[in-house]
Amino acid sequence: MSKQTNIAVFYDRTQVRKFLEDRFPTGKWNRITRKLPPVVWRKKWNTYAEKYGLPYKKSYIQNLDSKDIGPASY
Question: What is the pTM of this model?
Answer without folding.
Answer: 0.86
